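thought: fold this chain, then report.
action: predict
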Amino acid sequence: MTLGSHQQTVGKSQQHFTPHWLVEAVGPFDLDPCAGSPRPWDCAERNIALPHNGLESMWSGMVWLNPPFDRYQVGKWIARMAYHDNGIALLHARTETAWFQPVWQHASALLFLARRLSFCLEDGSAHPANSGAPPVLVAFGQRAADRLTDCDVAGTLVKKWTIK
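observation:
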């Protein structure tokens, strides 16, 4: 279901609904280009869901990005978010992967959450298993970094790093 080292993602459901409390803590958002359908709640004012392609759609405003956790797709979404440079992405903290490189190169802040998340099901109830990997909120742009700085989400905030 997720990108954990022992979980299989390819061919499985990519519907991982963000817990409402988390979106509320760092929002509001203008656009969610990876909205599920049906979904228990909107994460943004404007939502793009399949069959529409959020990668190819016009992005504007503050973006919430909870991308498909398919290791073959997630990098495309992160690269698009880095290019947009105005939003927050919820990712697995797979910091060693190639798809995480745009985060290191372009993000303005990282908030490594203190605990693993339980994503939600279509009806809004918590998924019985946790996310399978440590979560990180990634800010692109100064406004997004300010939101991570000011939110009450438990974790470790990182604002400066050096790529070696």
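thought: worth noting. The chain is about 20% helix and 15% strand.
final: tokens above.
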